[in-house]
Design goal:
By secondary structure, the chain is mainly β. It contains no helices and 6 strands. The protein has one domain: Sandwich (Jelly Rolls), CATH 2.60.120. 0% of the residues lie in helices and 47% in strands. Strands 1, 2, 3, 4, 5 and 6 form a 6-stranded antiparallel sheet that branches. A hairpin with a 4-residue loop joins strand 3 and strand 4. 19% of the residues are buried.
């Protein structure tokens, strides 16, 4: 067992704009926190792994090619591997607990 301190807790990203911190990694999954400030832009690309977001704090919309939905604290979002998605219209600082299965980047082709 491991207690993961700080997972899903808002941390101001500073000058960079957004903040991703990986807090746990095994071969089968990884977990981290992704923070986007009010008015921030989510510039992520589709991932090669399935992904689950849990909105811990804040409000925004999540957009995929098929739909756009408002999300807030307690929302749980599943995004399958390869699906375009991004958070837009961030109206309150957004803190997301993010789980990847398998671990983030583990399916990315090696160069």
């Amino acid at each position: 067992m491991e207690i993961i301190k700080g997972a899903g807790v808002w941390a101001h990203p500073g000058e960079v704009g957004n903040d991703w911190v990986e807090q746990l990694r095994t071969s089968d999954l990884s977990l981290g926190t992704y923070c986007i400030p009010v008015g921030g832009r989510d510039t992520q690309s589709p991932h090669t792994e399935d992904e689950v977001y849990v909105v811990m704090a804040g409000r925004a919309k999540i957009m995929t090619p098929d739909r756009t939905s408002e999300v807030g604290p307690g929302a749980v979002i599943f995004v399958p591997a390869g699906e375009e998605h991004r958070f837009i219209d961030v109206t309150e600082d957004l803190a997301l607990l993010v789980v990847f299965g398998p671990a983030f980047g583990s399916r990315t082709p090696k160069s």
